[in-house]
Amino acid sequence: MQGVSLQIIQVLVPITMFGLMFGMGLTLTPADFRRVLSVPKAVIVGLFLQLLALPAIGLGLAISFELSAMLALGLVAVAACPGGTMSNIVVHMGKGDTALSITLTATATLVTLFTLPLWINYSMSVLDGTEASVQMPILSTALQLGSFTFLPVTLGMFARSRWPVLISHEPKISKISTVAMIIAFVTATVMDEDSALSSATALFIPATLYLLIAVVMGYGMPRASGLDRKTSSTIAVETTLKNILLSMFIATNTLNAIEAAYASAVVGTLMVPLAIAIMTVYNFAEKREARLGEVAP
């Protein structure tokens, strides 16, 4: 049964991921990448957290809770992934720094072509029993990731420049891709119910701790670096809302193990309410400060 469920995921994840990343490309322009130069501190802090600090936290938690090798690699894959289009939506609706959110998502997505394979390979060298059973060459993995991230994003940006009307179709493309992925994963999980339940139970506490640390570091480090509340809240959302489809792709199409995808499902279930909570607290703090400013003499 597990072989059949893995085959379902392996077919649908690349298709849905290509569609989702094409949709992301429709929302981007070259200015989103050039903006890195205008807000270097915020981008550097955000990228450091997403691509270096949080993957290390994910690996540390996996080792501390003695997760099986594939569950551990799945958690590291989630932690090493960039933010996704959902983070841009939450930041925008929460009145955060939407431009920064888009810039971080776009920049991190390109950089993870190389950092994600590096983290998985390093984790395999640390975790017992994975190096011999899993081969993940960095260059070929980066090329594989690029064909399902960089390529569709580039095509989406090109399509936007030639046919601007396509921008209005981005929400539909993203929704269809996401829903198709959820249906496929739920179907595969039902077919492998016993393993999925035990894996989700083992992952719940480390995944929860990972997300709480991501929220605290995602907001605390930018504030400690002198960035304002709006910027810090935006970075916190970026560190919390990951591109879960990308981590599922790594789990099922690179590691060839549906067990490695369970971390994506558990984190994906918990991360959205936390991200919304970040922007809710930010707006509450902003309104409270505004009211205090009005009553001050």
Largest sheet: none
- In the residues, how many domains can be counted? 1
With helices defined by DSSP (H or I, 4 residues minimum), what is the helix count? 13
Q: Tell how many strands the DSSP assignment holds.
A: 0
What CATH architecture would you give? Up-down Bundle
Determine the mean pLDDT: 80
Categorize the overall geometry. globular
Query: What is the radius of gyration?
Result: 19 Å
CATH topology: Na+/H+ antiporter like fold
N-to-C SSE string, H for helix and E for strand: HHHHHHHHHHHHH
Description of the molecule:
With 297 residues, this protein is mainly alpha-helical. The chain is globular and about 55 Å long. Helices cover 81% and strands 0% of the residues. It starts with a helix and ends with a helix. Helix 5 (85-93) runs antiparallel to helix 6, helix 6 (98-126) runs antiparallel to helix 7 (138-148) and helix 7 (138-148) runs parallel beside helix 8. The chain has helices spanning 2-26, 30-34, 40-64, 69-80, 85-93, 98-126, 138-148, 150-162, 170-191, 193-224, 229-240, 244-254, 262-295. The chain has a single domain (2-291), classed as Up-down Bundle (Na+/H+ antiporter like fold), CATH 1.20.1530.20.
